[in-house]
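User: Round two. Same drill as before: sequence, then structure, for each protein.

Assistant: Same drill it is. First protein:
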Amino acid sequence: MYLKTDTSYKENSLKKKLSSRHRPQNLFGQCVFFFLCYLVSFITQASSFQAISDNFKQQFHQQLKESKVPGGAFVIVEGDQILKLSAYGKRYKNSSLNINANTVFRLASVSKTFAATLTSQLVHEHKLDWQQPINRYLPEFSLAKPAQSQKITLGHIIGQSTGLMPNSYDNMIDANVKLDKIVPKFSKLTPICSPGKCYGYQNVAFSFIQPAIEQQTGQSYETLLEQRIFTPLNMHTASVGFDAFHQQKNRAEPHIKTRTGFKQVSVKPNYYQLAPAAGVNASISDMAKWLIANLGNNPSVISPEVLNDITQSGIRTTKELRRREWKHYLDDAHYGKGWRVYDFEGNPLIYHAGWVAGYVAEIAYSPKLKLGMVILLNGESRVISSLGAHFWHSVFEHKAEIISKLSQSKMK
């Protein structure tokens, strides 16, 4: 980070002054010496984004209150440290139970980031291959012309470039139709383009990755996430599935927006059928650990090779450039593998959002600044998009100011 370069200069300068040959021998002098050492440590650790994080907390609480969102939580992480974590509101409307750092939310489509990471791990272990056709693991999947389905690979599935009509058969998931009844319906579909040639966001087809993972490992998807991600990252309240969510006593209940305000609804099992696409549950403290790992601080869990693989720009997603709150800042947008890859005012930003009845979620991080943020809400509200977009604008605007000041100081 740019300010760390500046503080490291200050630190080195002070260290020279505080070297052993300058170290005082009397007791008073030694006390002053150790205090200055502490001061050096504090200066070094101070973040240039602390003020932005503090300001964001105020905005978060104010905007959720104004929008009457029942509750939510956010975390901002820099490197392997939490800059700010805060919770707001209630686990359900008119309740006395406050949301806290360990309150579990549904992540909805942010679950895709976990599926992509797990799949990439297996690819790098040579247990799967991005070029393998999905028919190898799901032979019952077919399109109107069977030869077309044989061209769709695991890479197309995770990269949202299958060529299928966007959100194919999500309507049947909404109607709580079982997945084994939906798969045969694909035989009626004709692709809108060849695989790898156009973007088409999927939930049902994205989850076709599950049988590939399970057949190659001999373990369930849930077990693999637990063993490979949740446990090693100490994500103690993270889980997969409907039953696991209800086993959590400290959980946020869903609320939908109506004309008269937010209304609490029941959690439905329908999208939990699509575990890779929408099946993960987690608290904001869990998501802080997930962010830290994706910022490269847990290479034994998520290797640099996997991180590079899943965040490589894939198919272009021009529709994203028209997002209400984000369109002012996005210069380009692609889908990687389970992650969106944005060009945000000239800066790479890795991103994904999620929505499922009664919950919204958003995760994003800057690989260059080693800064990330997650927001989780238990009410459907567009305020999450506004908060996220304006936060990242503030971050990159601040970065530009630092560069400008450093350039001016060098010219002097």
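Second protein:
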Amino acid sequence: MITKKDKWSWFKKFGYAFRGIYVSLKEESSLVVHFVIGTIVMVLGIILNSEMSYTDWCIVVLLVAIIISMELLNTAIENIIDVVMFEYNVNAKKIKDISAAATLVLTIASVVIGLVIFIPKIIDVFQTW
């Protein structure tokens, strides 16, 4: 049975998560870039809505969410390293670089998949004009 206290703890958990997004957006310019590009992609999908299948939408939304989530993880990893390491450390730099590389790989893959989804739809729209 869910008690009143348990019910409110869920709201607190969501509050912590939204605060994490807010703090990350304030501190990480690359996360802001991903949010802006994600928004642009969603708007493009809305503009091309008649051309977009449910599968296309699922892929686009999932890719945007994965990229933003990876950027949040990258930010968390970088902050953990900064808290633990008080001075420059080669291994700490490697960890940060590898974490950033994971974000880059996902971003490149998402761009390629996005182009595969959107380019034929954009071509179709221009051909019907």
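The first helix runs from residue 4 to 27.

User: Perfect.
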